[in-house]
Design brief:
six-stranded antiparallel sheet; 251 residues; mainly beta; Jelly Rolls
Length: 251
């Protein structure tokens, strides 16, 4: 069991059981299993033999200290932890299902989000639809991040989170308490590209005319410059909430 860098909040994680604790309280996760990922897995031969209840990743929601509860509630923001254990989905590296954020209430804009890599390495595959089309995309970007990097998911972009190593990946994220839409990823067989063994990107043939993949490191990604800094995401937000005003819904 080891501490995650969420100080001053005390969060510990047990890698042997995938249990996460907030202080002494065990937090129950949302668990995504292979049977809930079937439509987005690239390697269909692997999928045919994979255990259907195999857990691929864990999401721990609404983590906060009591003394900061009002800060989150007033801004309608939530802090979460995502755990992706090392695994291969056949040829493909372990990943999340993928989703878009739904729009703010009475707004044409979806809500943005901020991630921080706490353990391991990560690739954020983000993509922006052309208008309301479920299959046409105007932009696809891969952002490589490592421990301590913070990455902003901009307005209008859906994302898939990939663990590109055979080591544990743990991220935290801060976002508006809005809803998600994963149907475009399910209906199109995943994101615009798949990341497979050998570090190769393979295009998703279900998405016609997908733009060429752009690649950045987290430090090069322009949207992240506004929140770059040495403090962990939880501490930075609770000490400097105005820095994250762009995450809030404003009527």
């Amino acid at each position: 069991m080891f501490k995650l860098d969420c100080e001053p909040m005390e969060v510990t994680f047990d890698e042997s059981t995938n249990y996460l604790f907030l202080g002494d309280k065990r937090i129950n996760p949302k668990v995504r299993t292979i049977d809930k990922m079937a439509e987005v897995v690239y390697d269909r031969q692997y999928l045919a033999r994979a255990p259907r209840r195999l857990a691929l990743y864990y999401i721990y929601r609404k983590l906060r200290r009591r003394q900061e509860a009002k800060l989150f509630e007033d801004r309608k923001l939530t802090f979460e932890v995502l755990v992706i254990p090392p695994a291969h989905l056949g040829l493909e590296y372990a990943k999340t299902l993928g989703h878009y954020h739904k729009n703010f209430p009475n707004s044409a804009n979806s809500f943005p989000e901020v991630y921080e890599v706490m353990i391991g390495e990560c690739i954020f595959l983000i993509q922006k639809r052309a208008g309301e089309s479920p299959v046409e995309l105007e932009d696809v970007v891969a952002i490589k991040a490592e421990k301590g990097d913070k990455v902003v998911m901009p307005v209008g972009y859906g994302h898939v989170i990939i663990n590109p190593t055979m080591k544990l990946l743990v991220t935290s994220n801060l976002r508006f308490e809005g809803e998600f839409d994963d149907k475009p990823f399910i209906e199109n067989g995943g994101g615009a590209y798949y990341y497979v063994e050998g570090g190769e990107w393979r295009k998703n043939v279900s998405i016609k005319n997908a733009p060429a993949l752009k690649q950045y490191t987290a430090k090069e990604w322009p949207a992240s410059q506004k929140i770059a800094g040495e403090k962990n995401l939880y501490a930075d937000f609770t000490e400097n909430p105005g820095k994250y005003d762009f995450l809030q819904y404003k009527a």
